[in-house]
Write a structure and sequence with these properties.
alpha+beta; five-stranded antiparallel beta sheet; four-stranded antiparallel beta sheet; about 20% strand; rod-shaped
């Protein structure tokens, strides 16, 4: 083996391509830093502008992908790779990948539909696919929920856009429906007054809304009352637990007795 020729060949390649590789590496590193700073700047500007905050994470993710693709093509050009043929190769590869990742494309399309038709927004309390939580972000492929017990739920946009979604906070107010059962020997008017009194003292009940106390069921042992209290979505569980605890205290003070055979307290 002629080591002299091999050494000359290596030196020639280093001379021809070493500078290009080094330049492409520097451009890539600097480009990544610039993209990071640019996306932070755009995020701050979006927060100051009137752009819907539901759309902001989606746009930032999309722009980040676009910037990184442009950086990659620029580095390829610096290395002497023909970008036109390279783009054609990327297109063909993208088609093959797209066919293999149809679910991801469906999630992308679902995210676009959610942002256009807005069945819910960031900050809304929703119920979807057996999960209840506040919408934290609508991303390119997923929607992020935070449950009342502070768990993070990631739901694919594809299935989310085609399945039933209950927007609990969409109207700004929500009704807490409860049923209470007391013994049939208790005076009807006294029991209704006790329940209405607890509603009046509930700090979470909306004062400008009419609250209902309705007799819903009569048996030889039990009189059941539908209790409907209006509140804000954020105070749903506060209202629910306040009513249960304070109705027990009020019933004890007024001598209102539970059914002899059944204690019937549940949420509707």
């Amino acid at each position: 083996m002629d080591f002299t020729n091999l050494k000359d060949l290596i030196l020639l390649n280093v001379y021809q391509y070493g500078g290009k590789i080094l330049l492409a590496l520097v451009v890539f590193i600097v480009g990544r830093l610039v993209i990071g700073k640019l996306t932070q700047f755009l995020s701050a500007r979006m927060n100051q502008s009137r752009i819907d905050r539901d759309v902001q994470p989606f746009l930032l993710s999309l722009l980040s992908v676009l910037f990184n693709v442009m950086l990659f093509l620029s580095c390829a050009g610096l290395l002497g790779i023909e970008t036109t043929s390279f783009v054609a190769i990327l297109g063909a590869a993208g088609l093959a990948i797209g066919l293999a990742l149809q679910g991801s494309l469906a999630n992308f399309a679902g995210g676009v539909l959610i942002l256009i038709f807005k069945p819910f927004r960031v900050g809304d309390l929703i119920e979807a696919q057996s999960f209840i939580g506040v919408v934290e972000a609508i991303q390119i492929f997923n929607t992020i929920l935070v449950t009342p017990d502070n768990k993070t739920i990631i739901l694919p946009n594809g299935s989310l856009s085609t399945s039933p979604v209950t927007n609990i906070s969409g109207k700004g107010v929500i009704r807490v429906d409860m049923v209470y059962g007391v013994g049939s020997q208790n005076d009807l008017d006294m029991t209704k007054a006790a329940i209405q009194g607890v509603i009046a003292t509930c700090p979470y009940a909306l004062k400008d809304r009419g609250h209902d106390v309705l007799v819903t069921k009569l048996t030889p042992d039990t009189t059941s009352y539908d209790v409907r209290v209006w509140t804000t979505p954020a105070d749903y569980w506060n209202t629910y637990y306040y009513m249960h605890e304070n109705l027990k205290r009020q019933f004890d003070r007024d001598g209102i007795q539970a059914p002899e055979k059944l204690v019937y307290v549940k949420q509707k």
